[in-house]
Specification:
Length: about 650
């Protein structure tokens, strides 16, 4: 028992020291959207879970030593616990040193399996050698360490003990929030003949890679055919460059700087959306409301709109785990969500991809070749729900995770535009994405080109899945009076402007999104070239439902444009503001883009620097005209600053 306690104390302290370092790192981001008391509750929960894992790890080490000791005695060797501890310490040190050498000298060079095994074997042999060399001193060394860490053991144990009641307090204090859907009571029946409305958003699908918008590859053959009898908007722009901010705009009809859900975290939510949201308004006016969201950053909990939806399955329902890490991740997250979601803000700390627990699981798991979030999971869940009795019109939001990275379509789509064997797995794509923004990465252009090909293949796969969904939907009676809206939360960049992915830039490849609206019984198509924003989709949905647009919504209905009428011309905004606090306060950081007519201005708030483009003459944003056309540039900058000033003035009211 004495040896077991010695192992437990050592492992417990090591685990806790890592946790403290991680906590300081996460607080730096958490403080932008949460209070210290919320962080303390989150830290208490991770403390309990992490300490439990440390106990499991210590038990495994102790059992391993017992087995080694028993085997060594059979062959005449005497291996003590201290020898095993010394071996583990030296082995881990060697691995860390090898990793640091690789990081400093050949960070961009991928390491194959044989090289990794060679490093591990070398570290193993070195650890054995030094453990044996120091065998007579290890007992004294380990005993000295265990004696010195006794105060830390007591301090960390007290923190652990205090964490238990704190977690229980927050769990039971907020238990009334378990059923937020009951708050959104129906106050009136839907108007007779009101249509069903299906909003389908594809994650990270830029209009610039869709053949329906003129892309040179046949990525969306069915959507092209389907849109021939729909209203196709050629100049739709996202309100943000990241899922949470843009979908919050979609669900509230508010610009990002007003709903303030702009921090890049699943647990930051927009202000007041428990009252002011599109789904809640629809529900109160007699609509059944449903959300099928596989992306946690767009979930109804992340956006703070749970009471707007009657049906909203958890994110985990739409995933197909492909390896050990995904299986463990989904099971842990599902159970944590059931117990603590809505009660402890950072309940999913232990399942974060940048936390060491998930990192180690990924290292132990086999590679992944096909997406774990296939579109058919969302489509199937919706159709199953639809087949149940529906006595009133419905609004359904279907968020499709593809073509968001990793770009892993199944065969025959994988390789359709690039038959090479490059970047066909999860690990290879993530490795490339990790370094692709670094100018020092020699293969960044070729990697970006290959990832672009995989992205196009993923879009083609989405197109096929959408085709199958429409075919299935046509078999239902509900389809006869259904409006279908196809769009995206934001786009994706592939180094067109030295920027890869999304979330931190406002170039056209990131902000230009598809918007296609299909009305029931419409035979002719219509191409609409007016500049429109994501917030206009919310007002358009209300117009279809026969509901007046409330004053707090900033968007305008696009139905008049679909009827050939004119609409008030207004500037369109998009913004990246994750450096600002989500609570009340001045917005002083980030980037804002504003479009008016053919011109687009991108303004960096911190640097007070602007870019101006004429998208009619320069659709790829290559020529900055801010100094050459100062009148137009200053005009757009004035619009931007006046709107921002209004927002900042409201933040003090």
């Amino acid at each position: 028992m004495r040896y077991y306690l010695k192992v437990v104390s050592l492992v417990f302290v090591i685990f806790f020291l890592y946790l403290l370092g991680d906590a300081f790192y996460r607080w730096d981001a958490f403080k932008h959207y949460g209070s210290f008391s919320e962080f303390l509750a989150s830290f208490s929960l991770i403390t309990i879970l992490w300490c439990a894992l440390s106990l499991v790890a210590a038990t495994c080490i102790w059992l391993t030593w017992r087995m080694i000791a028993w085997l060594s005695m059979r062959i005449g060797l005497k291996i003590q616990l201290e020898h095993v501890i010394a071996f583990i310490g030296i082995f881990i040190t060697m691995v860390i040193m090898a990793w640091l050498v690789k990081k400093l000298t050949a960070d961009f060079v991928p390491i194959g399996l044989s090289a990794k095994l060679t490093v591990l074997l070398s570290a193993f042999l070195i650890a054995i050698f030094f453990s044996w060399l120091l065998r007579n001193k290890t007992e004294l060394l380990v005993n000295a360490i265990t004696e010195r860490i006794v105060p830390l053991v007591w301090i960390f144990s007290i923190i652990f003990v205090l964490s238990v009641p704190l977690v229980l307090f927050h769990t039971f204090k907020n238990r009334g929030e378990d059923a937020p859907l009951q708050k959104g009571r129906v106050t009136s029946a839907a108007k007779e003949g009101s249509p069903n409305i299906i909003l389908i958003t594809f994650d990270a699908m830029t209009a610039r890679h869709m053949s329906v918008y003129g892309y040179n590859r046949e990525t969306t053959p069915f959507i092209t055919e389907w849109s021939s009898s729909a209203s196709l908007f050629t100049k739709a722009r996202s309100d943000g460059a990241y899922t949470t901010s843009s979908t919050a705009s979609l669900m509230t009809g508010k610009r990002v700087w007003n709903h303030r859900a702009f921090f890049l975290d699943v647990n930051s939510g927009p202000l007041k959306t428990d009252v002011e949201s599109l789904p809640l308004l629809l529900r109160k006016n007699g609509y059944s409301t449903m959300a099928f969201i596989p992306n946690p950053y767009a979930s109804v909990n992340a956006l703070g709109i749970t009471n707007g939806f009657e049906i909203a399955p958890p994110v985990s329902d739409f995933k197909v785990p492909r390896n050990l890490s995904q299986l463990v991740y989904e099971n842990i997250l599902r159970n944590l969500a059931k117990l603590y979601e809505g009660k402890i803000k950072y309940y999913d700390w232990i399942t974060r991809e940048d936390f060491i627990f998930i990192k180690l699981l990924k290292k132990m798991s086999k590679d992944v070749f096909v997406t774990e979030v296939p579109p058919e999971m969302v489509f199937s869940a919706f159709l199953t729900t639809l087949d149940k009795s529906m006595h009133k019109p419905f609004f359904a939001w279907l968020h499709i995770y593809p073509p968001h990275d990793p770009y892993l379509p199944p065969e025959p789509y994988m390789g359709m535009f690039d038959p090479s064997s490059d970047l066909r797995t999860l690990s290879s794509q993530w490795y490339a994405a990790e370094f692709i923004d670094d100018p020092g990465f020699e293969n960044r252009k070729s990697a970006a080109d290959t990832l672009r090909n995989r992205y196009d293949e993923f879009i083609r796969y989405c197109d096929a899945q959408f085709k199958d969904f429409i075919s299935q939907l046509k078999l239902r009676n509900n389809f006869k009076n259904t409006v279908i809206i196809l769009s995206a939360d934001h786009g994706e960049g592939f180094l067109e402007h030295n920027y890869f992915g999304h979330g931190g830039a406002l170039w056209e490849e990131v902000t230009h999104i598809p918007l296609i609206i299909k009305e029931p019984d419409r035979t002719g198509g219509m191409v609409i070239d007016n500049l429109v924003g994501q917030i206009d989709i919310s007002a358009t949905i209300l117009d279809f439902a026969g509901i007046y647009t409330p004053a707090w919504m900033e968007g305008l209905s696009l139905v008049p444009l679909m009827r050939g009428e004119k609409l008030t011309v207004r500037p369109v905004f998009s913004m990246v503001m994750q450096s600002n606090p989500t609570q009340r306060g001045q917005i002083t950081k980030g980037m804002v883009a504003v479009w008016e007519g053919d011109y687009k201005l991108i303004h960096n708030l911190q640097e007070n620097r602007s870019l101006l483009f004429d998208l009619r003459r320069d659709p790829d944003e290559r020529k900055n005209l801010f100094d050459k056309e100062p009148e137009e540039g200053q005009h757009l900058l004035k619009i931007l600053k006046e709107n921002l000033q209004d927002v900042n003035n409201k933040s003090f009211k």
